[in-house]
Fold Membrane protein.
Amino acid sequence: MERAQEQAAAGGQDGSAPPRTPTGTALELLVHGVGGTTPDAMLDDPRTVRVTGDDVAAVFRRAEDADAESRPGDYQGRPVPEAYVWCNLTSGNGTRALWLLLLPFMVVNLAHWMRPPAHGRIRMLRLYGLLVRLTGLTLTVLLVAAACEVALDLAAWQCAGTRACAERHSWLGFLSPAVSGGGWWSLPGRRLALAAVVPAALTGLLWFLSLRTWSAYESQQPLDRAAEPGEDPGRTALGRPGFWYGRRLVARLRAAHTAAALLTVAAAVAAPAARFDRGPGGPAPLDAAGWALTAAVAVCAAAVVGAVCRRGRSERRVDRDLDVRLVRWLPLAALALLALALLYAGWERPAWVSDGRLPGDTAFGGVTLVQGLLVIALGVVAHLLHRTHPDRRAAMRGLGGPAVAMLACALGGVMSGGVAQRVSDWLDGTGAALDGPPVLLTWQASVIPLLLVVLLALFAWLAHRAWRLARAERAAVARDYPGEPGDTERTRRIARARAMAALTDRGPRIIAVVATTTLLLGLGALAGALATGRTPAGAATDAPAFVRGAAETAQALGSWLIGLGFVLLVTCGRRAYKDASARRTIGILWDVGTFWPRAAHPFAPPCYAERAVPDLTWRMATWTRAHGGRLVISGHSQGSVLAAAAAWQLATAERKRVALLTYGSPLERLYGRWFPAHFGPDALGSLHTDVDCWRNLYRLTDPIGGPVGLPGDRGPAVDREPLKDPLAYGRTEAHPLPGPILGHSDYQADPAFAEERQRLLARLRPEVPAPRHTGPEPVPGADGSAQSC
């Protein structure tokens, strides 16, 4: 039955209209929001059938509506409801909770899409994307370098080279010269070569996950639509035919990042051996081999940077090409160099003994310095782009992208430093046997307490702000419910809910303070490590007693906190693997964070919208062609973002036959502020102009949804007056029990939802689009609010 219905709706493969007479039947396509739901709950019926789709994402109907196309007379006064369920794209599998470990990659990918509008400054736009891609590359190098630090330096070099540590951890005994009596694996180079399996395996895992998700997500075919004559490409890139098909870019970036990770492992293995060979008494043949290997690694690294610097996405057409040679040969070349590095390091050097720590300070210091410079340069470019077309609603005056990129680097530093500190403490039970991780990681851990002080101050400011807003809202609550007997506690709860919801608009200020503080503290830690070459406690040895005590306290507390942060992250992942409710919470995080295609980092969690948006576009396009074009797409929360993106992908004639109903929508409040180039006033204004009609519902108690608030002369209003929440202040004949404060949920319970949906359906007519209202005065609704439908 599914296949027959799909063929009947879709018609020919070339996109032509199907050979059937349009029925004029109306369709209401429901799209749920974050966290997901079931088709039974969306359609309010326990008996549902799948119309089209698979176990990952599908369209459902009530069982009684399965053959609605054959009974158009039964649906003259009501629509056919359908539910698009996409929650399994993000949170349907317990193993996906492990994607928490990819959080820095996801955050830096968000920074790519947070740029201000370009408005003709194409070179500046390309420079912005290049800087973000390079920042993502440094995160890959940082993560693999942290794995090398743990496996090669702390375990194989320091612990296995120290008798007390090796005896405490018997599984390292065969690597220890003192414990194994000089076994084959006890030579320093061979220990490093064996330990390199850990970061190499991590690289292979990231490559495999990216390849598998690439096949499941990026390879989904979008609706093949050429750019229309006269179409304005500057309004929003989300309407371009190739926007939701980033297969080529992800493949190229995956090859480059995989090669960069393998080269990082090769350098970590070969650098200690090369340093020994260049020293006094080093064997000349091995010294020459070390120089040759170093040069080959440098050349391959330059090729990796070149691949990342190449033009990013091709959005004006569906780009099905692949850079086959680069995708195949770049990782293979890096893998061959890694194999040569393992052979080079494992060559017998009788005089070589492990002492101290490996030279990781230079590597971590270089990565940190490059990240700081990239973020600063990104801020300059974003500021210049924002100046060309200022948007007062843009987060941080266009600097949201650089701030989020800084947070991604900070998350990468916390994860790398946290795992190094925890492993070091675990291996070195006495705290005196090992030299520990690089000095820079200790300095970075030592500034964590200062960052926590700033965060506590921010939370205190937010609490004070919420208290003041709640007091101010009490009078507004009394005005919204006139004639009701005063209930102090009830008023306080409603006012508190409104005040807490309003704190969402303070997000840009919080991110700005945290990102700026993180940048300054990170640069301070780098300067301290480079200037002293010692840990904070070691650098304060000759200082006064209170300074020395503060340095020792910051170092110990920071080491504990940064390790605790990493442990908590892993614990959340493990809990989500076993607990469905925790997995649902993490799924909400991915619903928001993985909406955008992977344009800056290939190891980020996959973009579910590259499956969901084509699904919705195909469904709307085939329905409007086959049934006269009466369609209302109804999106809640993140579903409204998917609905808008799908509407932009339609052809102009099809877009005119679609009405849009959004509720609890973050389109302007979150996406419009943080992603101004794609959801700014111009983009949302074009959507309002292009669809037949758009109505938006929101509540003052909703922390996510808000008004669209289109500025300027764009015709009738999109937003309805804020819905009352709760519907009734006290007990009434219609509501004999106290009503709940719904906030972001259950918009369908408000009578305004059914009223707006009916107006949209009544406005649409079969065969031709309904005339748009162009008069100066919008038609007043039943509640006195301005109406456009």
Notes: Residues 122-159 form the longest helix (38 residues). Residues 1-21, 766-787 have pLDDT under 50 and may be disordered. Residues 129 and 757 are 40 Å apart (CA to CA).
